[in-house]
Amino acid sequence: MSDRLPGYRGLALRALLDIGAEIGDLIRIIKDDTILEGILIPRSEYGDDKHVVIKIKSGYNIGVEITPTTKLERIGAETKPAFISPPPPERRTDLPTVTILGTGGTIASRVDYRTGAVRPVISASDLYSIVPELSDIAFVETEILFNIFSEDLTPRHWSIMAETVAKHIARGVQGVVITHGTDMMGYSAAALSFALQNLPVPVILVGAQRSEDRPSSDAATNLIGAVLAASRAPFAEVAVAMHETPSDDAIILHRGTKVRKCHTSRRDAFKTINAKPLARIIDGSIQMLAEDYRPRDQNRKLILKPNFDDRAALIKFYPGMSPKIIDWHVSEGYRGIVLEGSGLGHIRRECFPAIKRAIENGVVVAMTSQCIWGRVNMNVYSNGRDLLAMGVIPLGDMLAETALVKMMWALAQTKDPNEVKNLLLTNVANEFSERTVENIEPPRAVK
Amino acid sequence: MSDRLPGYRGLALRALLDIGAEIGDLIRIIKDDTILEGILIPRSEYGDDKHVVIKIKSGYNIGVEITPTTKLERIGAETKPAFISPPPPERRTDLPTVTILGTGGTIASRVDYRTGAVRPVISASDLYSIVPELSDIAFVETEILFNIFSEDLTPRHWSIMAETVAKHIARGVQGVVITHGTDMMGYSAAALSFALQNLPVPVILVGAQRSEDRPSSDAATNLIGAVLAASRAPFAEVAVAMHETPSDDAIILHRGTKVRKCHTSRRDAFKTINAKPLARIIDGSIQMLAEDYRPRDQNRKLILKPNFDDRAALIKFYPGMSPKIIDWHVSEGYRGIVLEGSGLGHIRRECFPAIKRAIENGVVVAMTSQCIWGRVNMNVYSNGRDLLAMGVIPLGDMLAETALVKMMWALAQTKDPNEVKNLLLTNVANEFSERTVENIEPPRAVK
Predict the structure, then answer these.
(1) Which of A297, B42, B141, B403 has the fewest CB atoms within 10 Å, measured from its CB?
(2) Best interface-test mutation with B: which of A318, A334, A339, A367 has the largest number of B CBs within 10 A?
(3) What is the pLDDT confidence band of residue A434, given thresholds at 50, 70 and 90?
(4) CA A401 to CA B203: how far, in whole Å?
């Protein structure tokens, strides 16, 4: 590896050394009948030794395989791609205004030249400069809230996000986009769904599975989709915008309460569970998929309920799980426990006395299923019925992750466990699906 | 509802009362050009008011919609269907011998006539009497190990299962079937995969999503598939046999370490994750799907490693999770912790000191992903690299559930945390997939 050409090895490295290129140079690649020009960008440490990656004028990254007949030319000296923000564009009154809030994550990250690994370093306004198409869709304003990995976000950050969204909506923007690490984006999307009620305009969370430096980056297409949805979608809900398939053809909009990251690395990692996705964007046009959406209405008055109580835990049940784990949470002052039980909503009988003690101590205990697809039904087997009789709250087809977020939110709305229970069972933001969608496909096996 | 016709309401109840029928009677239904005869069985409490359900001679249950022109006749008095075991069949030396071990679950359950709910009550030999087709496939012997809900199974039960399987294999049977509750069947399948090494014959776990009394029961077809695989499959591995799709067309065989229950109620709830399924059964014939299977070889010597240490916990990470949860497990004497982290294998930095303390105390800490699909890669982001540096063990594409089981198993093989680590990183029973199957489909969105 070369210090000046991080990530490049073998054939590709040799070809670049031959023309004296370094990262940031404008280079031209001539291969067969195709001429490509762009800025040389670093490769990830996991790349092969055959491809050279350039960022072409549109902002997309392209990897070109170097063969013995490929010709390379260095046609311009190093510029630091995308690190210097251009001056802000002039306000265009003919376009809707969208606020992009930066919170961190891969979509706002670059490869660390020193280690080859990814660090969150780009500001939200940099994003705008990297994706020039945005300027034709909306007048974009940016605000950086945080610049942290999404796994480091806490319920307190959700409150700040919700309050900031409300502030920008009060200013009259046509939509809000939140750039977010994908790891915990599902949880934040659920949190905003409960905190931002009666929305007048869309609030779109967006992330990237591959950083903007990589040839296969989904950052630009996802961001374009998110801004399109925020500025023009007919719905006014909290949604997540990501690739529908591994290709760039479609961006899918998932409801904030029904979405889950289901793959560690694929661009189509996010899936709507137990429901239809909200909408799809193809060729710049938005198709609604759900019929029951809240229509956009700039005059509707947002109801902000930004508080969360973090004295709630998610406990995934496993064989032989000790009841002491439940007792410990009670003794530590937790007010709510979401169980990720088995099948239709079960845990072992050995834990029942601890569950009973927890509920007697005023702890709200709710049940979801680690199956992910389907819905809990605690009336079928005696273990389930006994849990119901103790006061465990069955949460239907709600995702366990959404259930935890809702528990934290409900606990912040009232001190009374019965009112928390009523809130949990109320369909606040489409976290419960109608029974008619029960036959939504579970994961497919293999191709 | 009638006490003597549990589950029946409306039209269907009236038609049955008209002919004085009760559960267990042999009845004839004439509808259009079709004549059906079978034993009247109770309906679940969730059924509609139009269908009458009879068990026909083949053992299948059929629901017939009652219309004004449908004719019903009571042609025989009440017999208790399937509750009385017939005398054991004569040993047929022309057929392979298969042991069916009963552990409980829906496949071995009946509707409780009193409450309409399902209770595990049928013995393994009853199963045999309900599915007469089995007698053409294999000579079946049965042993009841337990009769409990699978969520009540513990690592101690896995040891008993493994030892009993070994005992029957030592007797020279051609295969073993274990009937099991579906809720925790994935965990038990993983446990047996580690406990039963160098298998000479197949060990097939099988369950049912709908009890044998329900018209849509998958109990008979799954059991037939399991016995077929145990007696005739060319592989000698631990596998789970369940419906591949909602229809009865195919039974799919999942490797014990790569299978997960992904739907609360569908018959095709089980999915192979991050790999190809092992085999498929269509029309009684077994197609291998995986190429790298261990072939059946009656002379191979089983290596039994039936012990598990239950001082291991599965902790699913969530936003704001307190590091005290990790400290508590250490103070309680847990020897292993499997984290279900976010994305490529992350948890919040706030927990890092607690992870460090745990490892310094000799606790083995391993990382999986709550994404389910894909694989952890802790080299990409600094949070992941810092966890690696502390000694957290990245478990590739291993399922979190399988990882917990393997941790419990590895802890029982050695006292040395380094040896536990080496065992965790060794591919013992295909719990790690090659990187080439990385593009296995994640769940599909919607039809």
Answers:
(1) A297
(2) A318
(3) confident
(4) 35
Tell me which residue in B322, B382, B444 faces A443 most closely, judged by beta carbons: B444
Same fold, A10-76 and A312-425: no
CATH architecture of B97-304: 3-Layer(aba) Sandwich (3.40)
Say which of B263, B319, B328 has its CB closest to residue A373.
B263
pLDDT, one tens digit per residue, over B3-52 is 678 778 888 888 998 898 888 788 899 988 888 888 888 776 556 788 88
ipTM above 0.90, yes or no: no
Gap from B389 CA to chain A (nearest CA, Å): 15
Query: Across A363-445, where does the E strand assignment appear?
Result: 364-369, 393-394
For B108-160, write each residue's pLDDT tens digit.
666 544 444 555 545 555 666 678 788 889 988 888 888 889 999 999 999 99
pLDDT digits (tens, 9 = 90+) for B55-114: 777 656 778 888 888 899 998 876 544 434 445 566 677 899 999 998 987 776 665 444
- For residue A108, the 8-state DSSP code is G
Domain assignments of chain B as residue spans, ordered by start: 10-76, 97-304, 312-425
From the CB of residue A46, how many other CB atoms can be counted at a distance below 10 Å? 11
- Domain B312-425 -> CATH class: alpha beta
Best residue of A381, A392, A437 to probe chain B, by most B CBs closer than 10 Å: A381
Residue B10 φ then ψ, to 5°: 55, -135
* B10-76 CATH choice from 3.40.50.880, 2.30.30.520, 3.20.20.30, 1.25.40.10: 2.30.30.520
